[in-house]
């Protein structure tokens, strides 16, 4: 005896983005903490040592926030004008920041007053960084120069005057104390060696360079400028590797996440994109409220900090494992649950003989009714409020099953005003859904056939019928418009395909038609 | 053209077993089923076919156990004979010639020497005027006896054997036809007729369909078209009869049966629910639902412990009396038509076609057994006539058997066709197909053809489907998966069309680089790599029917048949017609492992077969009038072992075998003489002890038994084979007190080993030979003595060993050879157990 085969619920393909491991990973953050700063946030830098405080440079201040605090733990306010590029040294003890007034200031993280002031630039300094040994400072300025400074005696070591426009980004090598790279609005990236007086490598980005990023291995360099993010292979002498154009406004900031597995880029178009660094495909996307100027990622992706033009700092913390489990898991168990699980989690020992028990088939409510051929009741259960609102596909599947059994008419007939109202409500809600239309149109026709004689007796039902009619008229107009568009597209396709000499005429037409059809009437795939 | 005498068309398996109700032997061990021209004997415990009782020359229409001897059975046939069989050994004992086609046979214990048959006695043989005739079987020693003593009992009876039944140990006989129930009381020699009123409102819904009599009580149960069951009582008076009505079935009751004690009444119909009514408490019913297909017959074993229901899908279900299904004997399911083509599963080498509604069946041709049914539709089947449900209409395998594509279709009146294309992946772990992708509405209209790309070197598999909506679509497996748990699925790769004509057939070339699609009278050839239309070939004015690429050395040829009786062969290198010939080809198919092609042609009401190579002008083989009617389904099945036939005309059968389905859904094949000889030889080797049903496992064990103890076969009341008592291990086991024995798990391997006979003992072989020879002689003697007690004719050999000796005796050399083979086999088996 075969068991009852339950009603098959069509699984429709989910529209929109596919749920991947990456989506799950990057969605696993708490709601953002938003902190209002005084002006646009131009730079965010994470301290390399625990507890990974981060320095936020906004307007004339540099704030240092703790990993979970919403108030700054420390504030540096001794800037005469807008501060830029507050960065930590690799030991997390010192912090350097440029300023609009062309002076570079060095702070002790625990102190308040600047330890050293480096004066020499003639215009605003937008780039500051420590070299890998920690004794020198690299600065880049709007006066087209970049300079190296000695920290102990605050003297200028070298000046490079090769860029022909503002220098707005730069990185120092973490492995070699003498190497650093700068990017400028003159579209070039230049690599300098402190032991030499000129640049050793020049790369053309093609757009004003906004940000630079070195891979931990320092074999690859990522540059952002214009709408492009480009990856360069330094070991091959600065050969371009990939060029990505995924933003529709200037990309302002770059960051590496997941131990160099993922690359994040933030842009003025208010998006942060996450790339896979093996194939450079976008795997995830974050949306923010305003244009993004700066982006910081805590080690191990513990938090994502984004600074925007409107001065709002958004901090997202990763959910702890318990929390993420809590949301996906079930609600609290009721006491009766213990009765159900009694003995379920018992693991048989080695010598135990397992007596197999026939597994009881669990059927949904509507299936139980269908099994007993109670067609009206089956439709009633399928039309329960919860089901018809949340899972219309189940209701439609039951209607389809009833139609297949040839008993849909019986199930629809003999309903009172209330249930007919619900039925019509469901139809109005889902009739024009292309997934359900074939089934529901026949249902609607049947309902009209059955209840034709009683139309006009109930104002509630009549109103619903009028709504249905209205809906159908709108849908017909809509379909007409669509057909017009389709016709226009066809002519465009036909004219865009180059004519070629083929032995039989009309092949180009049929090919074009075929492709057009393929794109419009792509069959619904269903993952099973 | 030469007629080839050594190639014959033979029936091959898949015969019907649900034509008449199965008959159970008194010990409930065997089941006798009328099956085509023979009677099949099944074992109820193992579901294997034990014997075929062959002898009738036409359809067997009934089987009954001889009431006076429960080891013999009568069978009747449309060839006008009644035959008596010893079904345990499969021997024909007697043939009674009646002379008129017989439609059913009945007998009862109280009428010794008489069987009742339904036949048409009139000279003009009008089939609608049938009579129930008592035939006195003459007691004569001859094997072929003419039964002349016929006396009509009832006239105008139904040809359905379920409409006539004996009641209460043969006191009366009840027969129904139309709206009439007729009861003939043997003691009174009187017949009473009872008529039902015609139900005018809903047509003739009161018609009787079946009848059953209570074994102890004077009660007749009748089933009706409208699903009602009437219980008739007091029918031995004309006036005071009564009946009560039971109603559960929603459509006709097809079979009724009382249990032997009369406590329960079983009924079944198209709903495929077995209903058990308690006798006299009819409101107490028990149900066994979802038996798979409409119930056609119900029988109960004489001890009442087992019920047997035969179903319209060629199945017999064995049900325990507690209403639990214990086993099923499944034959080849034949619907009204084969909608999917015949296919070979490349893995199991089984024949695949649509079977039960919504299922694909996998049928082993070698073993003549249904391997399994694949549920394609996966929906509850509603057993109701006139309901349009999903049917499997197309199916295709890829070359390796990893992928199966199925199309299911539901055509409703006034609605669009519902189509689903499903792709199934073979799962190595479960050894069955698992659904991978469902594509609902792959086309807007019915799918006319579907094929997989059969090249083996391609990494990606490709499927092409053609449809009446004027498009053909290529489907491909998406390589990339988005997450780890998601497996690759299929999606549309290309949609092609040609002048908005309807594509009919599609075919891939052997290397998979070309796709030929026929659009009415035009054949288009596409490149599968770039989806460019390479060329068009046409042979107006009629549409292309079949399309087929040549294989191997003939792969440059494309063959097609057209509606105006042309067989065309195009050369693809020159893109021109190579040759064409005028014949009305109904089916063209290529052998997948050779260059040969087979064409079935219709000519004057029958079908001719031509086997040819596209490159050669002369056909390799041709046979006129292979079968009457049109052949539309055929398949080349590769052989498991090659034949070595050197004759030119039969060489095409060396590597593969051609099966085809006739108009009447009979599965036929071609055999050569060599093959038949081999079959004969192998059947001689099969010596089976019939007390144990024949299973593959038994065959393994049986070999041992015959070999190591020839004397084990003595007598019909065979006890178990004497175990090797002398073994040390067994002695130890039996003589040591239980409390000092080690644990059973420890002893088990020792015990099993002691049961096996060591392989390397050459001297035992000779001894065994001698013993066997002697014992065989003794057996013959002893059986001759027993025979005298029974009334069987002397000519008819009795017992298995006698039958063996009657069969062509094996020569000494053959015997030795046989023993050598057995020896080899056994050593392998022993090794397996030892390890």
Automatic annotation (TrEMBL), chain A:
Record keyword rRNA processing present: yes
Keyword Methyltransferase: no
InterPro entries in UniProt: U3_snoRNA-assocProt_15_C (IPR018983), WD40/YVTN_repeat-like_dom_sf (IPR015943), WD40_repeat_CS (IPR019775), WD40_repeat_dom_sf (IPR036322), WD40_rpt (IPR001680)
Pfam hit, one: WD40
Region feature Disordered, mapped onto this chain: 508-528
Stretches forming WD repeats: 118-159, 244-285
SUPFAM superfamilies: WD40 repeat-like
Cellular localisation: Nucleus, Nucleolus
Domain U3 small nucleolar RNA-associated protein 15 C-terminal: start-end pairs: 345-491
GO cellular component, one term: nucleolus
Alphabetized SMART domains for the sequence: WD40
Keywords: Nucleus, Repeat, rRNA processing, WD repeat
Major subcellular location class: nucleus
Gene Ontology terms describing biological process: positive regulation of transcription by RNA polymerase I; rRNA processing
Subunit structure: Part of the small subunit (SSU) processome, composed of more than 70 proteins and the RNA chaperone small nucleolar RNA (snoRNA) U3. May be a component of the proposed t-UTP subcomplex of the ribosomal small subunit (SSU) processome.
Functional description taken from the UniProt entry: Ribosome biogenesis factor. Involved in nucleolar processing of pre-18S ribosomal RNA. Required for optimal pre-ribosomal RNA transcription by RNA polymerase I. Part of the small subunit (SSU) processome, first precursor of the small eukaryotic ribosomal subunit. During the assembly of the SSU processome in the nucleolus, many ribosome biogenesis factors, an RNA chaperone and ribosomal proteins associate with the nascent pre-rRNA and work in concert to generate RNA folding, modifications, rearrangements and cleavage as well as targeted degradation of pre-ribosomal RNA by the RNA exosome.
Protein name: U3 small nucleolar RNA-associated protein 15 homolog
Species, as recorded: Larimichthys crocea (Large yellow croaker)
TrEMBL record, chain B:
Keywords linked to the UniProt accession: Nucleus, Repeat, Ribosome biogenesis, rRNA processing, Transcription, WD repeat
UniProt keyword Transcription, yes or no: yes
GO cellular component terms, A-Z: small-subunit processome
Chief site of localization: nucleus
Entries under InterPro entries matching the protein: Beta-prop_WDR75_2nd, Quinoprotein_ADH-like_sf, WD40/YVTN_repeat-like_dom_sf, WD40_repeat_CS, WD40_repeat_dom_sf, WD40_rpt, WDR75, Znf_C2H2_type
Localization of this protein: Nucleus, Nucleolus
Molecular function, one GO term: RNA binding
One Pfam family from the record: Beta-prop_WDR75_1st
Protein name: WD repeat-containing protein 75
């Amino acid at each position: 005896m075969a068991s009852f085969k339950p009603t098959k619920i069509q699984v429709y393909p989910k529209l929109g983005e596919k749920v991947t491991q990456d989506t799950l990973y990057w969605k696993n953050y708490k709601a953002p903490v938003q902190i209002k700063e005084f002006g646009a946030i131009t730079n965010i830098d994470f301290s390399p040592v625990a507890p990974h405080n981060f320095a936020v440079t906004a307007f004339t201040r540099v704030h240092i926030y703790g990993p979970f605090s919403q108030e700054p733990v420390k504030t540096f306010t001794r800037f005469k004008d807008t501060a830029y590029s507050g960065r930590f040294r690799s030991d997390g003890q010192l912090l350097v920041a440029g300023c609009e007034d062309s002076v570079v200031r060095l702070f002790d993280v625990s102190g308040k007053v600047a330890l050293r002031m480096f004066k020499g630039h003639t215009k605003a300094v937008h780039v500051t960084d420590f070299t890998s040994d920690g004794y020198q400072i690299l600065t880049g300025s709007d006066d087209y120069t970049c300079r190296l400074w000695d920290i102990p005696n605050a003297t200028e070591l070298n000046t490079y005057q090769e860029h022909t426009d503002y220098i707005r980004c730069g990185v120092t090598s973490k492995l070699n104390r003498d190497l650093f790279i700068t990017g400028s609005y003159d579209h070039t990236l230049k690599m300098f060696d402190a032991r030499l007086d000129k640049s050793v490598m020049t790369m053309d980005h093609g757009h004003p360079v906004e940000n630079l990023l070195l891979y931990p291995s320092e074999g690859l360099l990522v540059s952002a400028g214009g709408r492009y993010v480009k990856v360069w292979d330094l070991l091959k002498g600065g050969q371009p590797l990939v060029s990505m154009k995924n933003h529709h406004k200037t990309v302002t900031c770059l960051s590496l996440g997941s131990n160099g597995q993922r690359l994040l880029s933030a842009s003025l178009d208010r998006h942060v994109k996450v790339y896979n660094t093996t194939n450079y495909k976008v795997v995830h996307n974050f949306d923010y409220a305003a244009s993004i100027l700066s982006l910081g990622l805590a080690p191990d992706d513990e938090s994502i900090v984004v600074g925007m033009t409107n001065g709002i700092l958004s901090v997202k913390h990763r959910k702890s494992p318990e929390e993420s489990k809590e949301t996906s898991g079930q609600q609290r168990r009721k006491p009766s649950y213990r009765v159900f699980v009694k003995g379920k989690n018992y693991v048989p020992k080695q010598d135990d003989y397992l007596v197999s028990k026939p597994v009881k088939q669990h059927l949904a409510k509507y299936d139980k009714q269908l099994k007993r051929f109670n067609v009206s009741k089956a439709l009633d259960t399928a039309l329960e409020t919860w089901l018809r609102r949340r899972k219309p596909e189940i209701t439609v599947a039951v209607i389809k099953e009833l139609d297949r059994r040839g008993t849909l008419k019986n199930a629809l007939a003999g309903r009172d005003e209330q249930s007919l109202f619900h039925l019509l409500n469901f139809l109005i809600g889902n009739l024009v859904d292309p997934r359900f239309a074939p089934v529901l149109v026949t249902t609607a026709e049947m309902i009209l056939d059955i209840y034709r004689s009683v139309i006009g007796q109930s104002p509630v039902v009549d109103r619903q019928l009028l709504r249905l009619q209205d809906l159908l008229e709108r849908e017909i107009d809509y379909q007409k418009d669509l057909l017009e568009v389709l016709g226009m597209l066809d002519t465009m396709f036909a004219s865009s395909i180059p004519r070629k000499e083929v032995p039989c005429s009309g092949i180009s037409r049929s090919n074009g038609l075929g492709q057009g059809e393929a794109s419009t009437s792509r069959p619904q795939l269903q993952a099973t | 053209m030469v007629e080839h005498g050594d190639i014959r068309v033979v029936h091959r398996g898949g015969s019907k077993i649900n034509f008449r109700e199965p008959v159970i032997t008194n010990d409930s061990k065997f089941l006798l089923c009328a099956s085509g021209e023979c009677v099949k004997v099944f074992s109820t415990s193992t579901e294997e076919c034990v014997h075929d009782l062959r002898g009738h020359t036409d359809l067997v229409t009934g089987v009954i156990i001889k009431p006076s001897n429960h080891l013999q059975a009568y069978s009747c046939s449309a060839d006008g004979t009644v035959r008596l069989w010893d079904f345990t050994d499969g021997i024909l004992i007697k043939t009674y010639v009646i002379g008129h086609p017989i439609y059913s046979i009945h007998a009862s214990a109280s009428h010794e020497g008489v069987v009742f048959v339904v036949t048409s006695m009139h000279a003009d043989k009008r089939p609608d005027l049938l009579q129930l005739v008592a035939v006195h079987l003459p007691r004569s020693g001859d094997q072929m006896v003419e039964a002349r003593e016929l006396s009509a009992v009832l006239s105008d009876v139904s040809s359905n054997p379920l409409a006539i039944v004996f009641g209460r140990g043969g006191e009366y006989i009840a027969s129904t036809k139309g709206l009439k129930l007729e009861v003939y009381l043997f003691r009174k020699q009187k017949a009473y007729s009872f008529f039902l009123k015609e139900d005018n409102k809903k047509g003739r819904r009161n018609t009787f369909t079946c009848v059953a009599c209570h074994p102890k009580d004077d009660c007749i149960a009748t089933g009706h078209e409208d699903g009602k069951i009437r219980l008739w009582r007091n029918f031995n008076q004309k006036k005071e009869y009564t009946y009560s009505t039971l109603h559960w079935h929603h459509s006709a009751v097809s079979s009724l049966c009382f249990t032997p004690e009369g406590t329960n009444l079983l009924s079944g119909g198209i709903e495929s629910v077995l209903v058990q009514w308690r006798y006299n408490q009819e409101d107490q019913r028990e149900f066994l639902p979802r038996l798979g297909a409409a119930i056609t017959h119900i029988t109960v074993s004489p001890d009442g412990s087992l019920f047997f229901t035969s179903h319209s899908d060629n199945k017999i279900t064995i049900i325990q009396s507690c209403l639990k299904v214990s086993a099923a004997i499944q034959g080849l399911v034949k619907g009204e038509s084969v909608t999917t083509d015949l296919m070979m599963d490349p893995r199991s080498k089984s024949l695949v076609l649509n079977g039960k509604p919504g299922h694909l069946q996998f049928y082993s041709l070698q073993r003549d057994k249904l391997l399994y049914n694949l549920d394609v539709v996966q929906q509850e089947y509603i057993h109701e006539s006139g309901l349009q449900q999903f049917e499997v209409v197309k199916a295709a395998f890829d070359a390796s058997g990893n992928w199966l594509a199925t199309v299911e279709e539901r055509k409703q009146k006034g609605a669009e066709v519902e189509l689903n294309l499903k792709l199934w992946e073979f799962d190595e772990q479960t050894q069955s197909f698992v659904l991978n992708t469902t594509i609902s509405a792959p086309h807007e209209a019915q799918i006319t053809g579907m094929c997989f790309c059969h090249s083996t070197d391609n990494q990606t598999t490709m499927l092409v489907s053609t449809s009446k909506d004027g498009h053909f679509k290529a489907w491909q497996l998406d390589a990339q998966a988005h997450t780890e748990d998601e497996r690759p699925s299929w999606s549309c790769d290309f949609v092609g069309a040609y002048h908005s004509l309807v594509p009919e057939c599609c075919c891939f070339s052997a290397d998979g680089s070309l796709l030929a699609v026929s659009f009415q009278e035009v054949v288009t050839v596409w490149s599968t790599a770039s989806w460019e239309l390479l060329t068009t070939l046409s042979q107006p004015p009629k549409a292309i029917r079949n399309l087929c690429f040549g294989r191997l050395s003939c792969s440059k040829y494309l063959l097609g048949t057209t509606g105006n009786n042309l067989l065309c062969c195009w050369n693809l290198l020159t893109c021109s017609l190579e040759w064409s010939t005028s014949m009305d080809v109904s089916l063209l198919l290529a052998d997948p492992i050779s260059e040969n092609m087979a064409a079935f042609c219709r000519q004057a009401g029958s079908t001719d077969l031509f086997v040819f190579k596209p490159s050669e002008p002369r056909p390799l083989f041709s046979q006129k009038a292979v079968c009457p009617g049109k052949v539309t389904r055929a398949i080349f099945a590769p052989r498991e072992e090659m034949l070595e036939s050197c004759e030119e005309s039969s060489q095409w059968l060396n590597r593969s075998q051609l099966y085809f389905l006739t108009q009447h859904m009979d599965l036929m094949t071609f055999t050569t003489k060599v093959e038949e000889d081999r079959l004969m030889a192998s059947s001689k080797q099969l010596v089976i002890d019939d007390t144990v049903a024949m299973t593959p496992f038994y065959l393994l064990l049986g070999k041992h038994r015959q070999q190591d103890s020839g004397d084990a076969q003595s007598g019909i009341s065979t006890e178990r084979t004497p175990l090797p008592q002398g073994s040390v291990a067994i002695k130890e086991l039996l003589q040591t007190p239980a409390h000092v024995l080690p644990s059973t798990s420890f002893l088990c391997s020792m015990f099993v080993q002691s049961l096996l006979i060591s392989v390397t003992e050459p001297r035992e072989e000779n001894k065994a030979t001698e013993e066997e020879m002697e014992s065989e002689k003794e057996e013959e003697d002893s059986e001759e003595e027993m025979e005298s007690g029974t009334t069987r004719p002397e000519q008819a050999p009795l017992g298995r060993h006698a039958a063996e000796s009657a069969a062509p005796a094996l020569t000494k050399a053959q015997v030795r050879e046989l023993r050598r083979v057995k020896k080899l086999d056994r050593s392998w088996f022993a090794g397996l157990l030892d390890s």
